Amino acid sequence: MSTRADVAKLAGVSESTVSYVLSGKRPISDSTKQRVLAAIDQLGYKLNYAAAALAGGSPRMVTMMTSNLFLAPPSRIDGALVDGIVNGVRGSGFHSVIWPISNEDDSDIEMLLELNFSGGVILMNVMENDPRVHTLERAKVPFVVLGRTEVGFAYNYVDRDFENVYKLALAHLKELGHTHIGVISGNSEIHDFLKKAAAKLKLTLNLLSIRNNHDGGITLAKDFTKKYPNVTGIISLLDIATVSFVNAATSQGISIPGDISIVGVNMLEEQAESSSPKISTVAFNAYEMAISCGKIMVEVIEAGKNSKKKKSELWVGDFIDRGSTSQL
């Protein structure tokens, strides 16, 4: 098993420099840091996180606090986000772990704080006025929210710019003459951002609420003509169910884009390419957005617990025309 001395020898630095790179206790030049990290990768060196914490350094571990991915089939986007965060923090010598949370159970966050093994927390699947944000802020634990929530104070976050994403998709459908728009969603209500964007464009929205799975899309295709006769355009907030719907549409006598135009706003580009016909999208590079989130998490940790400067990013994406929309 490789030791810290082995890493130092390969990188051409002292053991103390290796320690500083791993603990973040002292500033190290980027060139030196990269040599040390490259040596760690080459040798397969594993840091003892508990020992690092006892030595006084911040743990080089980032915790992704998310809903339990094993309780329900996750969106493909969930995997891309996790993968992006892992790679986003790895470049700075951090590792990451998933911390599944129980529904409406504050004990999850309390246990995480008690164990004190994490240098920072990335909150995923946040709810309105999320109590976890309040708890982490009070405890002065470095954190970044992947998403947004209204809590009454500033915090670090990375999210889609849904307001502009929705405007882009709806404006495209309106230009093609569509005024009755279906919204494929897993929620029981249409988001306020989407309602406001539709109101400005004088469009009528119809909620098409389904489960985000293969069967959900097939059921929608079977029921669509009967339940939603006035809908000619669709904006989709789901990925798996939307691909299934598009693939099943022809067998139900629905032509895309002849009868229905559809724009996906919350799916990976490879998913949009996989359906028949392919799906036009407002591009969502979940992986790159998550990498950025991971990098911001590292910056927040290295800035220290008392840093008052907050970081934020909003991602939109360009409209990608794959032929699933047409003039009404």
UniProtKB/TrEMBL annotation:
<dbReference type="GO" id="GO:0000976">
    <property type="term" value="F:transcription cis-regulatory region binding"/>
</dbReference>
<feature type="domain" description="HTH lacI-type">
    <location>
        <begin position="2"/>
        <end position="56"/>
    </location>
</feature>
<dbReference type="InterPro" id="IPR028082">
    <property type="entry name" value="Peripla_BP_I"/>
</dbReference>
<keyword id="KW-0805">Transcription regulation</keyword>
<dbReference type="GO" id="GO:0003700">
    <property type="term" value="F:DNA-binding transcription factor activity"/>
</dbReference>
<dbReference type="InterPro" id="IPR010982">
    <property type="entry name" value="Lambda_DNA-bd_dom_sf"/>
</dbReference>
<dbReference type="Pfam" id="PF00356">
    <property type="entry name" value="LacI"/>
</dbReference>
<keyword id="KW-0804">Transcription</keyword>
<dbReference type="Pfam" id="PF13377">
    <property type="entry name" value="Peripla_BP_3"/>
</dbReference>
<keyword id="KW-0238">DNA-binding</keyword>
<dbReference type="InterPro" id="IPR000843">
    <property type="entry name" value="HTH_LacI"/>
</dbReference>
<dbReference type="InterPro" id="IPR046335">
    <property type="entry name" value="LacI/GalR-like_sensor"/>
</dbReference>
<protein>
    <submittedName>
        <fullName>Unannotated protein</fullName>
    </submittedName>
</protein>
